[in-house]
Specification:
AAA family ATPase, 4-stranded antiparallel sheet, disordered N terminus, Rossmann fold, elongated, AAA_dom, disordered C terminus, 440 residues, alpha/beta, single chain, Bact_polysacc_biosynth/exp, transferase
Amino acid sequence: MTSVQSPSYESSAVIYQTPHFGDTDGTSRQRTEAYTKLLSSDFLIETALANTGLELSNTEVREMATASANVGSAILTVTVRSEDADTSAELANALAQALPGAVAVLDGSTPAPDQSGAVAPDPVRLSVISPALPDDAEGGPQYVRNALLGLIAGLLVGLLYAYLRSQISRKVQDAAALGKFLSGPVLASIPADKALETGVVDFSRESPAAEAFRRLRTSIADHEPGRGESRTIVVSSAVGGDGKTAVAMNLAIALAESGNEVVCVDAAGRDEADNRSARHGSGREKIPPAGLIDYLLGDDDIDRFVSASWHPKLSLIPAGRTVPSRSELLGDSRMRNALARLASRADYVIIDTAPMADRSDALVLGRWADAILLVARSDHTRYADLGAVLERLSLAQLGVCGVVLNDFPRPLARSARKRGERLSVANLLALESVSIRTNV
């Protein structure tokens, strides 16, 4: 029967989708399935035909072409079968090459292609890794060869995909690996140190943690936009438990120790769940000192809520009362006015905010700040979470002055949870009787 049938030539092109930071396995599969369906759409077929000049209808192309996805990976395969070997290869390649541009247009990131088929670079990172080749015209279709090549390509790319996914799901470990991930230096690496068990470094002693914060202070100073210009820095992290509050407080102290006027603002606050936990653990609710939220809800000037600390160069603004609409208040014009006022009276304004996985406060406040400082904790922060945060900040066009690698000891977090407490700027108010002096 085979000898009397018309020859049929089959060619396949293989497409690889680079996984996005923050993608779960479910979202990756959904995206791959969507791209597979798009390969048989009129929009993509018409673009492919315009690029080749083949005189075929959309219906004929759909009858000749099939698209499939490897289960559990980001591999797409476009296969075209026709009576002409060159046509099969040309059409398969045209469909595969048209996919990135079609996705970009539908996502709204690039304009539609012109008559020449030209499109902007693909922002979703789709790549043709194995272009289609014509079947051997003399020997007929080489199904065994195509199957073996497809199997080998699928296995190799599947292994690459698994490797990339494992890299993304890894946790941050050391500064060298984090620097490679960021394609830039880590501003400072804060070591685990018993001196940090209270949340505040004793700068009167030569400890590794104190020296690390001095290096961070120097790195921050090197990023100043202009001599004599105030620096307003938002400190945040990808997820909770990264130690960003302790980094914000000790950075503020280090800056004050070098003679700068510093205001440290608690914009992270305590949410309702934390408040209930503290009330349940202590048997009674602790009344927080008046602070930022009280200012945002009232008519007084921000100066009224600035508290002096034991250090003459360091002032503090506690979080204030607990409210459910904290994020909305932080986006109010009164918050912008407060930051402008604080910047006029201080060399540095350090703002502690909630983790970006919990709330978008850092994005809101970042619009009015000079830069955002991110904190990642060794053996705690996942690269996927950090990458997702960096992508959000990039889309919002907010400047990131750098990343701090943090490794605070776990006993601090455990003891705080047992007491139903959360480390905050208000902790510094309890240290008014402590005198920390050092030559830095």
